[in-house]
Amino acid sequence: MITFDNVSFAYEVDAPVLRGVSFHIAPGEAVGLIGANGAGKSTIMKLLLGLLPCTEGEILVDGVRVEKKSLPQIRRTLGFVLQDSDSQMFMPTVYEDMMFAPRNYGLSKEEAEQKVDAVLAQLGLTELKYRHNHKISGGEKRMAAIATILAMDPKAILMDEPSIALDPCNRRTVIHAINGMGMTKLIASHDLDMILDTCSRVLLLSGGQLVADGSADEILRDKALLEANRMELPFCLSGRR
To answer: Residue 47 sits in which domain range?
Structure first.
């Protein structure tokens, strides 16, 4: 579903952010993208979406090379849940936000509304349908943002820090929602407990390079590896109280 083949990228000459990064993500895989601040996680997501140009190496999404002429197709294939829900929810109500993409992709009003109702029911959010975005809680808005992307019916979903600033109850709700999604998932997060709960595989970035790629259970239990790359064991494995 997603391929990075020897991808390098720099915002400034002689200051590479990514250096020769290669990985493959199969259809249906749930993959966590982890690393300290500045490791290159957000850059990878922006390159996948074509928000940054791939100048060295090759990126494929569902067999299609990410380049200017393919961006409409790429962006229909990938859904992106932003870290800041306020930046994603731009219409007055949850309903209007969820209708926006399906209608712009050519669905009739009736077809789009059926899609909206099905996603809301799937996530247990039917009561939010006509709520105003500025009147719902942060946790509700995060769930509504996820619902907005699912209404696009993407083949793969990218998520940037989906559990950030959530209370324990809303965090559990988001984790349950993520685990209920059958499509390919790439989740960038510093919340390693959440990654352990939602992902079977982990990509560990450090200094713009992929330094580990393997089982989430193995990598997230490797104290020496994590500490060598400015990270700590997930709270649930650390023995902290």
So the answer is: 2-238
Identify the bridge partners of residue 153 per DSSP, sorted by sequence position: none
Q: Which positions ≥6 away from 214 have C-beta within 8 Å?
A: 201, 202
The total of other beta-carbon atoms located within 10 Å of residue 168's CB is: 7
Which residues are CB-neighbours of 18 under 8 A, at least 6 positions away? Answer: 7, 8, 9, 40, 43, 44, 47, 208, 209
Tell me if 76 sits within 8 A of 154, measured CB to CB. Answer: yes
For the domain that residue 217 is a member of, what is the CATH number? 3.40.50.300
Domain count, the chain: 1
Q: Quick: pLDDT tens for 99-135.
A: 999 998 889 999 999 999 999 998 889 999 999 998 9
Q: Please answer whether residues 119 and 144 qualify as being in contact, where contact means their C-beta atoms are separated by less than 8 angstroms.
A: no
Q: Say if pTM beats, i.e. exceeds, 0.70.
A: yes
Burial class (CB in 10 A: 0-12, 13-18, 19+), 58: middle
